[in-house]
Amino acid sequence: MKQKSSKKRIVGLVVLIILIVIATALVVINPFQYLNGVAVNAEAGQSVAGSLVAVRVLPLEPVNLQNTIKSNGNVVDPSSIDAYSEVTGTLKNLFVSVGDRVEKDQVIATVDPSRAAMVYRESEVKAPSSGTILALPFVVGSMVSPQAPIARLGMLDHLEVLVDIAERHIGSVGIGTEALLHFKAFPNQSFTASVSRLGLALNPATRSLEIALSIDDPEKKIKSGMYPSVTLFTEHLEDVLAIPRSALLYSGQEAYVFIIGSDDLAQRKTVSVGLQVDDMIQIVDGLSFSDRLVVEGQSLLTDGTPVRILQ
């Protein structure tokens, strides 16, 4: 009897343990599974929202594009003439300074052609025309010859600005192309000019072409020898479709952008580009003014990507 009673107790204990395990499973395990299910559902909802790529868009409007060439120039007198010595010898006297006004046949220098054991009369150098002394390449005591000018004279009636432009710009510059000049001597003033002459050949060393600009300077403020900064206005387009260069993407040689459709999905558009001015580039084909262009976040997009437009 005692043995049977002991077996019943053991069976009862085993049943009790099983009940405790089942209760634990119901109370502990199931609630966590429920919470996990809630978390999974929440994460699923967040993943749907997280799949939206945040972008910024730009409404397209007509703009004007003005291309320019920036360079430096040198103010010269195109009517300047040179005064030469008739003999080879030592420059004995200079009677003028740069900026002096001289008259035709005025003596501006003397040259001594004497040599060792041979004394000659000094030769006079006269101004070939009335004008202003622009340059004196030699100093007293220098050896001079008929091949090198002793002085340069300018009429100063009509000054020009000489500018060198790179070979790639030659096709966009012609007679009449307008320009703006800025001088350090007149920091708050700009002077208008226009191309009056084009060089006939490129400089083989620099692959550049020299052009001349006529200056609009009624008050005669500009002086020969000044060095202005020059802005040449070349191609000009009005009311064209242009976009920030940063919005443009490339696949090989193909240029493309992303726009946002009415369904808030990204659409890839292949475009043809035209004139580029600073950070703006003309779109010749592939976009219309009604499109919403993606200007931020476009590198994360593919065709059909859902987006969230940032304000």
Largest sheet: 6 strands, antiparallel, barrel
Q: Could you list the spans in which at least 5 consecutive residues all have pLDDT below 50?
A: 32-49
How many structural units, i.e. domains? Answer: 4
- Content-based structural category: alpha+beta
User: What strand order characterises the main sheet?
Assistant: 2-11-14-13-12-15
**CATH architecture tag of the largest domain:** Beta Barrel
State the CATH class of the largest domain.
Mainly Beta
Order of helices and strands: HEEEEEEEEEEEEEEEEEEEEEE
Q: What's the overall average pLDDT, rounded? A: 88
CATH superfamily of the largest domain: Efflux pump adaptor protein, beta barrel domain
Radius of gyration: 43 Å
Helix content: 10-25%
Report how far the terminal alpha carbons are from each other.
Answer: 87 Å
Number of strands: 22
Strand content: over 45%
How would you characterize the overall build of this protein?
This protein has 311 residues and is of the alpha+beta class. It has 4 domains: 1-29; 53-65 and 238-309, conserved putative lor/sdh protein from methanococcus maripaludis s2 fold, CATH 2.40.420; 69-75 and 157-236, Beta Barrel (Elongation Factor Tu (Ef-tu), domain 3); 80-154, Beta Barrel (OB fold (Dihydrolipoamide Acetyltransferase, E2P)), CATH 2.40.50.100. The protein contains 1 helix and 22 strands. It has one helix at 2-50, and strands at residues 53-59, 63-76, 81-84, 89-94, 101-102, 107-112, 123-126, 131-135, 143-144, 149-154, 160-166, 178-183, 186-198, 208-215, 229-240, 242-244, 249-251, 254-260, 266-277, 280-285, 292-296, 307-309. The strands form 5 sheets. The protein has a 6-stranded antiparallel beta barrel. The radius of gyration is 43 Å and the shape is elongated. It starts with a helix and ends with a strand. The model is unreliable at 32-49 (pLDDT under 50).
